[in-house]
User: Fold these one by one.
Assistant:
Number 1:
Amino acid sequence: MVFRLSAKEAARYPGLRARLDAQRTPQKQPAKARTAAAGGSSAYVEWEPAEEIGDARHWMLDLPDMELINANEVRRWHWGKERRVAASIREATAVLARSLKVPRLTLARVVYVVHPKARTRVFDPSNWALSAKAAVDGLQDAGVFEDDNASVVTGVDPRAGQRQHGAQIRMSLVIIDQGRGEEQ
């Protein structure tokens, strides 16, 4: 918006020109690029599995390079695409679990590890919770769990994995036995 003042108006209202010029200039400073997480020294912290798993029985399933469901992007998708991607994640997880011969578990925890692209500085692994849910359903299809309710699967927790060079963001599942597994 342009303010025009005549010399007569400027003399009549002292300080008006300065106030209008101050309103015209932006008060906000442009946002700085996020380079570090709040309160931390690094913007990206990779998960250390040995600390969390300990000596418990566990199985690691690396899902193939495939499209995953991101909570930020799925809003723009057609519902049919979301169902197709979820079905492919579910099927791939079931095939991997069967090929690794993961036994039936009565009590387990699933950690899903999201491996971002190499250039990613800051990202939120919990955005891929919909992909993790489809993967847990695939574990149920493979017979690893009788049901994926809270009495069998104690948690599905997100973690940030190693950066990787690839076309897509990748995901791994770590199944941690917290009870006595039933061998099939």
Number 2:
Amino acid sequence: MLNRTILVLSVFLGLCLLITINSISTGVETSSTGLVTYVDGTLKKKFIEAADWVAAAKDTTVISGDKVRTFQNSRAELELVGEDIIRLAPRTIIDIIKLYEETKEQKDQTSIKVEEGELWAMVGSVDAGDEFNLSTPVAGAAITGTIFRVSVDEDSSTKLKVYKGEVYISNAPDNPDLTPEVLPHKQPKQVSGPKQVSGPKQVTFVEWLYVVRDMQAIQIDGRGNLIDSKDFSQYDQDEQTDWVRWNKQRDEERKKNR
């Protein structure tokens, strides 16, 4: 009787294990984990539904649904998959909405939102059909093998600079009918002296999709309007900051260690 009971229990456990493995292998989505590879100062994370932030030291893992933030005088580096790297400047908050989630079509989807602060990213080539998307409160960007940085101010205004590769950025990322256009050269309007103010005017929101390529920059206001777009140089004052120099140094170190 005891032997029969053991046999039945063994068969039952085996079936449970088989069902579990099968459900994992045929599930609609699976996702990967990222890894914190550098922390200077304070880095914290929390799952999107959690109430409390917890400290995230070097070698901490991050997954889909995590929020990650740095504090004043802090910065951090996250290794996603392979050669894909993102770095957070001080006082930056990001949402890892999806992290290489594999769909039922066996395509990888990554989606990261920058709530505020500044992010530097080095993303390898993206396979056909895969998606690596980055968003801010006023724009969405599709990444296709790029080195870039993006900053988001308190009013949600966004600035994107592409160092290598290209980024498709739109103020209406959910509109599939937009056609990619070459980035225009647009200078911010000069502020003139005092003048009589007329009554309120109806402002039409213009949706757009631009391709930002090597050494090009785009600036978007907090309402999603394009206010500045231009070429930039490594000799610009904005490129001489400690943040930029540190990221370029980290990029070179990673290339040497491949």
Number 3:
Amino acid sequence: MEFVQSRNRQFRQAANRPRKNAPDYDSIAGKFTRPLYLAFVTETWRPDINGVAISCGKIVDGLHGLGAKIQLIQPVLESADAEPQYDVRTVGGFRLPFYPDVTAGVSSKQKLAQIWSAERPDLVVIVTEGLLGRSALQVAKKMNIPSITEYHTHFQLYGKHYGVGFMEPVIRRYLRRFHNNSRVTLVPTEEIRQELNKQGYHNVVTLARGVDTELFDPNRRSEQLRRRWGLEPDQLAVIHVGRMAAEKNIQLAVKTFRRIQQVNPRARFILVGDGPLRKQLETENPDFVFCGMQDGEQLAVHYASADLFLFPSMTETFGNVLLEAMASALPVVCFDYAAAKRYVHDHYNGRKVAYGYEPQFITTAMELANNQAVCRSIGNYARVSVMNHGWESIYRKFAGVVEGVVNAEDAA
């Protein structure tokens, strides 16, 4: 017990210790000058369908293509997709009782120490901040292995949706302490980098996310799928893609669509995804089309076959679905923050409203739903505007960050 308390004190002290500013990683070449062995620790991975798993998969695949050897450490409760190109190690995990779709890892210090003592990685990348991630951070620190952490989720904003809003200050402190024990914290937007800097985070680096514009393509539009949705060619398909959960503000999407029906009675609402609120939504809205989880080409076909995208969430750090919808030539309605702040230009390639202003969100969506010519024009510009935001530049910058951290460690 004394050892554990001592390690926890060291963890807190290190988190509060000032460090030098991070170097300009944009100036570092996006390739490896020598073979590197990278250990990724994550609680979500393929076949999970969420922004973290998708982004992590794209980056890991890209780094592997640049010559890195990859080790994956993850909790697995069921059979996972085979990843023969990677050294996959599994640890214990459990399903969150209030969120059974989410798997959390357990603290695994002993197992991680054994794995990394047998073959020491050059760098540990910690993708998620739970018990598994914290134990990985502590073991890496004890073994003097440099680490990078990723900030993907505003967990402190989730509590109010599950009756534990009073925990927000505690969660904020935990996250700051967690990330300040790594060499670099990666965030998806400049807005979040500035926000975390103000909160006392050190060495925060912006690493955006990309979109596969070959996969997400308006040419995948399917009249056959639209007929299955019960639509005629001239009917409006309004779509929402994402987790059906309170923190995603899904009820605003429902309320918005009901108002859209006032100006476009023949419109239909298409919901792609799953989550804890799905059964309730299905019961309350029998006229909605629930498509379940979709990925790959099927997801791309669903986007392309719709006409208007609603993105009501106010808890995102980025929002991959926004770029996927834009690449599919869909006009989007969203709040002005996260990815939308950088990529959406109001009235040109999408519509965005002031953060949290729900009445304006609804009226903006109604305006678009009542003018399909404007919808098509905005959607076409949306597609053009994201064509140069692929994943290659993202994983190459990640490679530059990795190279910079490892080189700094070698020089220390």
Number 4:
Amino acid sequence: MFAPTSAIFTLLLFAATLPNGLRLVELPPEGDSVEIVAGYTSGGLTGFASTAAAKSLLVDAYAAGANIDFINELDRTAFRIRVPKWALAMITDRLPALFTEVPTGDVEAAPSSPDFRAKVEDEIRNALLGPAGPAIGYATDDAFILTSALPPDSLREALAAIPKRASTKAQEWVSRLPAERTLRFKSDLAAGAVIFGSPTPGVYYKQWYLVLLLDRLIHRIVPLPLNTTLPLTLHPYYYRLELAVPAGQFPEPLEETLLQEMQRLQFTTANAHDLVVARDEALAYLDSKPVREWFASYDMLSRREEGMQWIQSMTADDMRVAARDLLIMNRVIASWAPKPRQTSVAAEPLSPIGPVGEAQARQRAASRTDRPGRPQSAPTAGRDEGALPETPLTRFPSHTHAAVSNPLPERLSSGVSLATSAINAVFISGGTMTRFDREVTPDDLKSFQQYRADRILVLSPASSLERARQLWSAFKGNPNGETGVPKGKVSTGDLSALFVLKTILDLKLIESGWWRESSLRIDGSEGSALQIRAPDEKRTQILDWIKSIANAAPPDPYFAWIREVAIHRFDSIRSDLQALIWERDAQGTIQELETISAKHVQDIARIYF
């Protein structure tokens, strides 16, 4: 049933391998934007995102209003960028440098110690596969670019001119003797777990597709709340099942139950209906966009087609054999118990501390920090003081901005407010913003019936506004529900300027290489404020950047460019701004970004931080 879709995808796809080994693949076009995936078919390349070429690419993509994802998978390290068509040349011009520049090492900050779960995974992987070797490197044979637009000839020529690079070190795989290994760990986690792991080959082999179908069957017939993982990989890895151990229980009984269910799979034939549904789910997974993209990265779409044919021919007996193989292979059972609850005892003096003791306590508190959020010992030498460039970073190609209309929310007969926006979402005043990747259904309304109708703002694209109006006009809320209390301290008239300030800071995070571990958000669920999520030292630096802007407004040419960037990214924040403004003023509207001045942004930095 999936063959026609796959065939269409194959017909629309054009792949070319350049003389240096780099793969350039054209994907089917999608809508008004272009998707580009660029990187290496090798995992663990931590320095890839921190090169100067990568930062330049990300700055341009962000400035054009692109959606940016960093792919850090077992066998792939890459960027996924969805950019407007008018900005395509900005991105493609940066791609050759991305593959020309090779990191000399891990240019990022030293990673923090891995958490308990990461250490457990290392132990399981070592027991099944042996110690993991270093990353293969930045070989041009591993480089790939997927694009949903026809690659220009200039891009092909520039990519072909990149010198061929071989792998720095071949990956080694250790052959392990079949054995059953049991690992017991001690943990401070509130919940325990039982993990079953069994080695699997890569996607070249039929066994991988057998395990994929078995996995879908397990979720249908095994009466346990299992989380399973079968990664897409060319190399041997392992299939993983995890069963949570609730607080107050021991892992051993659940471990025995899990093994009994796995053993039952090899002796019990699945019924025809369960097998058909599991097969459909496995085929749908292989035909999904992310999986097709993964196979295209390796120029292996024909192998995916063959795997789908294998799955269509698999029988219930094949599932019993696959379950048997998981049990007799070099399997591992790992487990840990939940942390026992501990009773704490607090003590306090029976007499007042006294003037002397209070003075000493204040002195100790003052010595720990010189201002909120900034430890006194935090280093300041050599830190970027937040100076902004005098000129724009990149000139934009000629383009026009889509007209944005922000009409006042409509009050429905039910008491619910309705407004046109870029997404489907429901906002509860003083509460949360719930986003939907589809139109809201009558079943979705049930979760909002606990709230007063006048606390609810419904956001909907213009194309589905009438259906939303009909649906929510009949809504029955709780007239005795609590009244929402707005969160945050930024006034409605300052929210647009706060977004422009966030745009400046986002670009500085990208230029600093901190964008993966630090983020800035204006979130309707969190209230009218700038949410800074970053390690303490980086949070301190972000606050210093804000202080620098408060002391000196951005130069006019740079600010005009920043304002243009904010306009490109407006759709990403529109719904949150609408919700936060409506929450305080039902008749309020979003200030047009073109009217925001550098002085206004400077005032925001000075007043609220």
